[in-house]
Write the structure tokens for this entry.
Amino acid sequence: MDKVQKTNEFDVIIIGGGITGAGTARDCAMRGLKVLLIERHDIASGASGRNHGLLHSGARYAVKDSESATECIKENMILRRIARNCVEETEGLFITLPEDAETGFGLDYQAKFIEACKAAGISAEAMDPKAAIAWEPSVNPTLIGAVKVPDGSVDPFRLCSANVLDAVLHGAKVLTYTEVTSFVKEGNTIKGVNVVDTKSGQNATYYAPVTVNAAGIWGHGIAALAGVNVGMYPAKGTLLVFGHRVNNVVINRCRKSADGDILVPGDTVCVIGTTSTKVPFEECDNMYATREEVELMLREGAKLAPSLLTTRILRAYSGVRPLVAADDDPTGRSISRGIVLLDHATRDGLDGFVTITGGKLMTYRLMAEWATDLVCKKLSVAQKCTTDVTPLVGSEAKSYAEVASKVWKGATLAQKAAAGRHGDMSVKIPFVSEEDKTLVCECENVTLGEIKYAVEHLGVKSLGDLRRRTRVGMGTCQGTYCIYKAAAALAKALGDESLAPALQKEYLDERWKGMRPVGWGDTLREMEFMQKVYKAGKPFSFKD
Amino acid sequence: MKFDVVVIGGGKAGAKVAASMLEQGKKVAVVSSGLSINNVSLKDIEEKGAVVFAGDTVTGGSFEGSKLVNVSTQKLREVSLEAKAFVLATGGFFSRGLYADMEKVYERALGLDVEFAADREQWFDADFSAPQPFLDFGVKVDQDGRAFKGGVVLENVYAAGEVLSGVNSVCEDAEQRIAESVEKVVNSLK
């Protein structure tokens, strides 16, 4: 790849800024390719940011699908090393309840489960119910069995952001808010993409010998634009976030996978999920949690940890898994949750186009490796994958404390929080002036300096983008106490203070969407308070 | 303890009703769950002669037919507050005057009848900036400001302020609506 290239020419174009596209961009860039990553909205704005944030041990798949289970545990161990800044090593429990025994998932099944886990290389250790309660006091006390597995939690926003940032540091170009409108096709070869900047409306064309479709469920539409068919099955999943972290270890049900059987602690909250229902493609852009889904999550969640019923629900959200129907089964009955890599040259006679889909957040790195191997083969590049041993940017140090103490003497709470979010990169966050040190989000300890850093280095254009990079407004107040300040700060950092009201409105509408399906009890109280704060007051300015 | 009027709620509406009653020379008690936010107004009416139970919450009342005889509070335990008339001014959801579960909206202190949309889908507008229907949910009153319980109008229980149906502090004419509800109750109690 030594030849001089024009600015609109790349070795590979990757469509989709979810975790798969981000991972593929990083892998391609690390192997020396000139990479362009295109994302229609923001990074991790689809299913990559709308899941449990579970670092699967693979135990869930052990009995039914040992291949997925083996993939999971391998990637689990890799992510603990390369993405330690995004991972929390909580461990996990698979519990058996009295009602499970009545449906054929009693202690006999538990024995089978442990055996299957071990066969897949997953450590699984039966625990006495009393010991399990002592270890995780929030667990349903009526449990009759428990198994300890190496589950954990992973911050999907941070993981995606770190992959994108690492790709950029290796020379990749990233365009967010850029949508592919059509392909540049010559005969049976994809030569490039025509795109539109969704903010400015400007059109552009980019060329590359290979284009990778990594657009998740939207990959169905991207494939259609390229003139090929990828039979996808949009499976919606709804989850609820609670205002406290009621559990410290992941709690799963030890039975056949079903709705609402995983409770994951993450940062200061916990998440119960999920449902799985097929939805029409037209609805994928506007996912909302229904009342039935919310009630189901609460009912099932309470069986894992009864105190969920008395914990304030922050919000509900839904994502769409890009499940893929097998090529010979267009009805979608034979669904694989495994990785699907399609070389459209051999499959459809369309050169220069590759689809990577299916899979899971957990196996994104392996998906990226497969896709990049194929891209390299097409480009006759011999570089081997090193993403399994190279830590992501921000994850080089052993712990947040180590990062914080390396960067700052006597780190403040805000500095420790920033180090937790940005790892080694936090050295770039200004903590000099009083303004830089001013706290904007008190729930998550986000400073004005961190907002400036996010705009400058992390491609932030909206408050939603800022939330995905810094957790601003993600805490217990859901932005009530900070979004008016964050809107003013972001508008200023973007260089146009008049943007603040529109930024604020966009954010509040989005939070409101998540709160409406759970609008009763303490959540409704919070909603009235939010209305009071934002409707009774005047627009905020730091000058006041 | 016997009073002419017991005002439940020491916020803006409750304090105003209490002040007017004191001006008319009535013996007034105010039960306010708040300790500090409205301390100024509460101090003011305390100086004018009201008995103020600050940091306390009404937990229920005894009815005789369509008449409320007394109310009990969390802290007074066996002692109840008797009065000729009672005024409920406990505020909306935020102030805990109202409470909602997944199905229904309730008035917390006395279980009074509440007006709300039966379908929870109708509680909110998707646009955060638009008027939100749930803010208007609240206690139903007759033209004299008297509340209902079990479909029957209560002779001596009035409601004012944000706890009322159609009154909230977010809408543009909030101040006016709250003031009108206070005035109505004050006039009825003359």
In short: The CA atoms of residues 86 and 158 of chain A lie 6 Å apart. Chain A has a mean pLDDT of 92.
